[in-house]
Amino acid sequence: MCGIAGFIGEGTAADLKAMADAIIHRGPDGEGFFADQHVPVFLASRRLAVVDLPGGAQPMWDGAGDICVVFNGEIYNHRALRRELEALGHKFLTDHSDTEVLLYGYKAWGLDLFIRLNGMFGLAIYDRHRKTVVIARDRFGEKPLFYGTKTGALAFASEITSLRKHSAYRDVSPAKLSLMKFFAHGFFPGEHTPFEQIKKLPAGHMMIVNAATGAREIKCYWTFGIDPNTPSGTPDDWAAELESKLRRAVVSRMESDVPLGIFLSGGVDSSAVLSFASDARPAASLATFSIGFKEKSYDESAYAAQVATHIGSTHHSEICDLGGAQALLPSLLARMDEPLGDPSLLPTSLLCAFARKHVTVALSGDGGDELFAGYDPFKMIQRAELYDRLMPRPIHQAVRMMAARLPLSDTNMSLDFVLNRGLMGLKRRPALRNPVWLAPLQGEEIEDLFQTRVGEEELYSETIAAWDASNATNAVDRAMEFYTRFYLTDDILVKTDRASMRVSLEARAPFLENELVDYVRRLPWQVKLRGNIAGGYTTKWILKRTLARRLPPDILARKKQGFGIPLAAWLREWTPPEKYVPFVNDLALRARWEMHKNRARDDRRALWCWLALAYGLN
User: Fold this and answer.
1) Of the chain's two ends, which shows fewer C-beta atoms within 10 Å, N or C?
2) 355-394 burial string, b = 16+ CB within 10 Å, else e?
3) Residues 142-192: pLDDT tens digits?
């Protein structure tokens, strides 16, 4: 695991050093540089040593000195790829470095290398003879990669903060439309970032750059989509196959030359990871970590302790309280690099810092909710279609007004919160329902906040385009594509990456293993979301069936809680930031804060977005 940086074209060795220094937290164990000023190509790496501690230094060259790579991530099938490459005649110099596999894999397969990789990565490969640089990102975007678009200096880095240390990017301006999209989603969707002339390389994409001319081309090598080719067999057969694939996925992500642990919430996904990990190692040798809250409706620590006892892991738990959260908040948001409107960033960061005291690598349950229809909005999809057909719009508006008058509650997933948020998406066309259910602010509220007209087609252009282009034939499958391609990639994985790498901890997600994902996306939605409108729905049905012999029944039957925090209550104790957010009507935001504080409205999501931008852009 590392942080990478580099540029092609204008710039100096001092620029490269500054870019590398900005991401030292991603790689505290070493640094490396390469500069070919005649092309010109500059590459830098900061290393967090996890696999092949003595042999994985970067930038790394092949034996002939033709190909160079800087690489952030882990390749879990590197041993199998190494055997394949050795059979083709390639001679390896390291003992078991996954980085070296990238060099000879590129020499053997060229750009087809990336589709063969099972892992997480953001990387850059320099082909000295062809004078090309290829940068690429893993299928789901577990590892970040940003690039700048200024003429004469194409720079790239694992973090925006690093990229902005290049002299050509120190004074980039905030991007107004991107900030508006941030309030519409709670994250920056697709290629958007907070700044003009800085973009994200999308997940599953590569960029090929001609280092001599600066010409570049972006290509997609993989994108998540539902596969209609249902596997043969029965649900029992599918559950058995899932068990086998999950076990292999977890075990493949346990390779490490440093201490490894597991995040444990007591929910289905993290409990599944722990259960399968105990097949590979003695349970008592597995360290598990959880964060709890004094506020009972948000606290899952008892469930985590129950699962740890059931499996037999060595469990560690800490409590997150108002004082600790308030003390951490400014520095956390200032170091996020890419602001995020997800308040679970706070407990995730505390969890990572807590785990880092004991381990260098941690497994998470990320991806399970998206792949198996685990979120509550999935239960709303069929009901929304029926509601849309039967409920006249004037009556819908009246219902929304009545719901808005419900007493506000600070408990987790309270009736007023769930009902008001659910009603937002009803009477919307299907392409908008899922992003609107997540939205911190609605379109007209964003227009007021920015004092700018913007249509929903522009605010949600990325998610609308993905919905319309989908080959899925039903709304549930399309919703799974939305949550996997946008919410998982641009929110959940961003949160986990920044929270973990802030403290030099590597987080791995077994649910995103290639073979497992390719199998799950072929399963019909009816075995993921089981039931009907009249009788209710069970989320993750096939996954729970798979785990029935492995986990306690009450853990499998638990209502999804989510990694939320008592944000609504805590915001009433905090003071609004004395910081300016570009383009935003500051008085309007402060008025919202006062109304929230006085319990006149629940604006927790929008106010968190304000905090994220106020500290993150200043």
Assistant:
1) C
2) bbeebbbbbbbbbbbbbbbbbbbbbbbbebeebbeeeeee
3) 999 999 999 889 999 999 999 999 999 999 999 999 999 999 999 999 999
Neighbours of 515 (CB within 10 A): 14
Mean pLDDT of successive 10-residue segments in the chain (618 residues)? 90 96 88 90 86 71 93 95 96 88 96 98 96 97 96 94 96 96 96 97 98 94 96 96 98 91 95 97 96 80 95 93 78 90 91 94 97 89 64 59 54 54 66 89 93 93 94 93 96 96 94 98 96 84 97 90 75 84 92 90 91 90
Asked whether residue 193 falls in the same domain as residue 242, the answer is: no
Using only the alpha carbons of the chain, give its radius of gyration.
Answer: 24
Smallest Cα–Cα separation from 270: which of 571, 540, 581? 540
- 557, two tokens: 């039957």
Greatest alpha-carbon pair distance for the chain in Å reads 73
Q: Which residues have a Cβ under 8 Å from the Cβ of 310 and sit 6 or more positions away?
A: 551, 552, 555
Its domain, for residue 610, covers 568-618
* Structure-token match 């792949």, residue found: 371
Question: 539 near 379, Cβ under 8 Å?
Answer: yes
The 10 Å Cβ neighbour count of residue 338 is: 24
Nearest Cα residue to 489 out of 245, 243, 78, 137: 137
Could you report the per-residue pLDDT of 216-241, keeping only the tens digit for each? 999 999 999 999 999 999 999 999 99
Alpha-carbon distances, residue 283 vs 75, 253, 261, 315, 403 (angstroms): 25, 16, 11, 11, 48
Q: Does a structural domain hold residue 458?
A: no
Query: Does 131 reside within a domain?
Result: yes
Q: Give counts: helices (H), strands (E), the chain.
A: 27, 19
Residues with catalytic annotation?
2
End residue of a domain, out of 160, 194, 220: 220
| Residue 243 and residue 546 in contact, taking contact as beta carbons nearer than 8 Å | yes
Quote the number of domains for the chain. Answer: 3
Q: At 204, phi and psi to the nearest 5?
A: 70, 20
Asked if the structure places residue 50 within a domain, the reply is: yes
Dihedral of the alpha carbons of 188, 76, 515, 474, in degrees to the nearest 10: -10
CB of 38 closer than 8 Å to CB of 183? no
